[in-house]
């Protein structure tokens, strides 16, 4: 995984997208003194069947901020696109390009933008839209003339994104050792307690630990045998 960077920006669709696998890497990076900010396209307000979206949004925002704090991330922003029906398009690209200009990252992280998770597991349209728009916005952010309204708002072009790392890809190219961050990743995922309790009858802590350990161990089999978080890295 590239090491010569100081600032990263993670852009995903929903609360919990980063906690399902990626946050052990984030914990390792913040330990090293790197700065990481989270931008979420939605508040995940359509994510819990038994909770109406208005109440759900407030609760999931709170859970997301708490889960970010566990892995050393204090900046969490929401773009307020609509959960479940995020549209890929210029509005989304512009909002992500604006976030990239605000935070000026060298590394951008997002979640699987492809139709499937590999095999027959279909991805959600929100992940596809946000993943693709993030890959595109990494370039948009550097072009003064694509979204001139951003420059008028004082957001100068940022052409410093060197890599976009896609988590959850079925074609990973790079990996980060998850050993040091795994325990905090479990506690980070556990902060999404309301969501997990609605999702499974399993004890939340058992569930979070089992899921993340199994994923990191399986990933590690392809990378040195140590528990790992894998990314498909696109260079710019
Ligand atoms: Zn999601």
Short description:
It contains eight helices and seven strands; from the N terminus they run βαβαβαβααββαααβ. By secondary structure, it is α/β, with parallel strands linked by helices. Strands 3-2-1-4-5-7-6 form a seven-stranded mixed beta sheet, sandwiched between helices.
What does this structure look like?
The chain has helices at 23-31, 53-70, 90-103, 125-140, 148-152, 182-190, 193-199, 204-220, and strands at 7-12, 35-40, 75-78, 107-111, 163-167, 174-177, 228-235. By secondary structure, it is α/β, with parallel strands linked by helices. The protein has one domain (7-235): 3-Layer(aba) Sandwich (Rossmann fold). Strands 3-2-1-4-5-7-6 form a 7-stranded mixed sheet, sandwiched between helices. Strand 1, helix 1 and strand 2 (35-40) form a beta-alpha-beta unit. Helix 1 crosses helix 6 (182-190), helix 2 runs antiparallel to helix 6 (182-190) and helix 3 crosses helix 4 (125-140). The protein starts with 6 loop residues before the first strand and ends with a strand. The structure holds zinc ion. Zinc ion is lined by residues 13-14, 17, 127.
């Amino acid at each position: 995984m590239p090491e010569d960077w100081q600032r990263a920006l993670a852009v995903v669709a929903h609360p919990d997208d980063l906690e399902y696998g990626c946050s052990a890497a984030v914990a390792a990076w913040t330990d090293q003194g790197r700065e990481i900010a989270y931008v979420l396209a939605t508040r995940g307000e359509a994510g819990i069947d038994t909770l109406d979206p208005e109440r759900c949004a407030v609760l999931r925002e709170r859970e997301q901020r708490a889960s970010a704090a566990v892995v050393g991330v204090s900046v969490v922003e929401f773009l307020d696109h609509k959960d479940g029906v995020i549209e890929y398009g210029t509005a989304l690209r512009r909002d992500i390009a604006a976030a990239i200009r605000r935070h000026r990252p060298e590394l951008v992280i997002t979640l699987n933008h492809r139709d499937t998770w590999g095999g027959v597991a279909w991805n959600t349209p929100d992940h596809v839209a946000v993943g693709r728009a993030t890959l595109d916005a990494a370039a948009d952010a550097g072009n003064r003339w694509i979204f001139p309204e951003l420059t008028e708002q004082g957001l100068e072009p940022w052409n410093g994104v060197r890599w976009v790392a896609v988590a959850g890809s079925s074609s990973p190219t790079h990996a980060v050792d998850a050993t040091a961050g795994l325990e905090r990743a479990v506690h980070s995922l556990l902060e999404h307690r309301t969501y997990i309790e609605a999702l499974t009858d399993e004890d939340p802590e058992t569930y979070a630990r089992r899921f993340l350990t199994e994923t990191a161990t399986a990933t590690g089999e392809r990378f040195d045998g140590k528990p790992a978080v894998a990314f498909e890295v696109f260079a710019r």
